[in-house]
Amino acid sequence: PEVVMIGLGYIGLPTAALIAQNKTHVHGVDINLKVVETINAGKIHIIEPELDIAVANAVKEGYLKASTTPVEANTYLIVVPTPFKAKNEPDISFVEAATKAIIPMLKEDDLYIIESTSPVGTTEKMMDFIHQERPELKEKLNIAYCPERVLPGNVMYELVHNDRVIGGVDKKSTEKAVAFYRQFIKGDLHKTNARTAEMCKLVENSSRDVQIAFANELSLICDKADINVWELIDLANKHPRVNILQPGCGVGGHCIAVDPYFIVAEYPMESKIIGKAREINNYKSFWCAEKVQTVKLEFELKHGRKPSIALMGLAFKPNIDDLRESPAKYITQKVLQNANNEEYYIVEPNIAEHKVFKLTNYNDAVKKADVIVFLVAHDEFKALEIASDKVVLDFCGIIKR
Ligand code: SAJ
């Protein structure tokens, strides 16, 4: 194969399929044998529009093969997860393991690219690691960092059309990586160095986190000030240079709720706003769970009986089935921990069943429950008719005004 792709997850698999569509032989590697078998059968293990067809075709035409071990190629792409450890410190052990696995295969002029979100300096660190094991390849390899920026749900389009930032450890590496991506990307390719490219990815997601924290902070202020925050933000955004994002029940997903910590862990004294934004967005989820508790007690005082409660949405954002780092899921868990014989209806229209939560259809839940808590702004919820005697807690702007 020309390309070895290590990591066949949410980003690695779509990227592998895209490269393969271009009639380039890709050897995909994943530690999970089940994933490997699924892909070799022309099927996929994640939900992403259009990915199934792309993978099925690539496998059928023989351009994409998966395995649990790497083989020799000319280009190696590292697209493995970089989670964080207990103290919110980044864990680059998967990048290290993937690099270690391919070091024996490297030869002069090969291209090694990390796409995984990584703390600043990771690419140089991996370069040193490679040079330690293969000193004869010093200056002879092309080593670069190129983060992805695709939005789950729109990956196959954005992979081709988004601009990319490409940073090599030297000019030759940058040029070589640009030439590689040029084959299948239509967006602009912006050249820089590896450290800037690494920081750029972290900064993009931190920027969004900080902006959402501002909206979430406003929602807390408005709750006390008895002002409708949705109306307030709509009105403020009429100003030509103001563009406030939407408050919600917190920030989730595997990117925005994680990446800012990679900056804070390395530069704790300097990252004041970035660190605070994480705190505010996490606190917002806690605050929502507490609010449910308060409303529950108020209902009991007023009606002399316990309310039944509908918890609407589990996903980390609207119209997807992804529960990773989901604030709605966290709030649901917390509310259930505080349960005291109330009836609960848990709703997630994008999932058929869940191993922990018993799910209820959204129409039934809204009819049966006394208290309706909107956690995620799924499209299905926006069209619901809600009886006027219901207590509604709208954390994500379903009702708005
Ligand atoms: N959210 C709000 N209010 C808003 C917008 C979002 O509360 O106004 C919440 C969402 O409900 C969700 C979280 O923020 O819980 C994150 O959702 P998102 O749609 O902002 O982003 P992700 O995590 O799906 O994808 C992000 C994207 N990055 C940016 O927009 C800067 C995407 O382009 C990246 O590729 C992706 O992270 C990634 O993989 O890093």
Notes on the structure:
By secondary structure, the chain is an alpha/beta fold. The chain folds into 2 domains: 185 residues, Rossmann fold; 169 residues, 3-Layer(aba) Sandwich (Rossmann fold), CATH 3.40.50. The protein contains 14 helices and 12 strands. Helix 8 packs across helix 10. The termini are far apart. Bound molecules: ligand SAJ. The site of ligand SAJ has 18 residues, from helix 8. It comes from Pseudalgibacter alginicilyticus. This is UDP-N-acetyl-D-mannosaminuronic acid dehydrogenase. InterPro entries: 6-PGluconate_DH-like_C_sf, NAD(P)-bd_dom_sf, UDP-Glc/GDP-Man, UDP-Glc/GDP-Man_DH_C, UDP-Glc/GDP-Man_DH_C_sf, UDP-Glc/GDP-Man_DH_dimer, UDP-Glc/GDP-Man_DH_N, UDP_ManNAc/GlcNAc_DH. Belongs to the UDP-glucose/GDP-mannose dehydrogenase family.
CATH architecture classification of the largest domain:
3-Layer(aba) Sandwich
CATH C-level label of the largest domain: Alpha Beta
Helix content: 40-55%
* Average of the residue pLDDT scores: 96
The whole-angstrom Rg is 24 Å
Our count of helices gives: 14
Record field, number of beta strands: 12
| Biggest β-sheet strands, sense, barrel | 8 strands, mixed
Which series of helices and strands comes N to C? Answer: EHEHHEEHEHEHEHEHHHHEHEHEHE
| Fourth-level CATH superfamily of the largest domain | NAD(P)-binding Rossmann-like Domain
State the low-pLDDT regions, or none.
none
Small-molecule binders here are: ligand SAJ
CATH topology of the largest domain: Rossmann fold
